[in-house]
Amino acid sequence: MKRIDKKTERKLYWLFIPMAIVVILLMLDLWFGMNLGFLTWGKPAILGSALIVFIGYSIAAIRQRCWGELAVAVIIAVVMLLNMSNFFIDLFWPDR
User: Fold this and answer.
1) Alpha-helical runs (H) found in the chain
2) What is the pLDDT along the chain (96 residues), one digit of tens a residue?
3) Which of 8, 19, 23, 70 satisfies CB 3.0 to 4.6 Å to 49 for a cystine?
4) pTM for this one?
């Protein structure tokens, strides 16, 4: 399976910064009780920052024709979106 080259991959690591900021704010809110209201804006923030990473890696995989990495990224993104929408909870526990 063809992989994204190391130079491009190092540049793509910068896309994880928004997700790291969201996770730090989550830890400050939940662990240290700083009352940032994370439960109201946290889900869209996590979703948006994860999609930034997904879109960046997808563009790089398409440009370099790394179809295996693109397929794995799409599968991970679909499972993440289904999990965040409580699809699996509603599927297995419909009366809840």
Assistant:
1) 6-12, 17-30, 38-63, 67-84, 87-92
2) 788 889 999 999 999 999 999 999 988 888 888 888 888 888 889 889 999 999 999 999 999 999 998 999 999 999 988 888 877 777 788 776
3) 19
4) 0.78
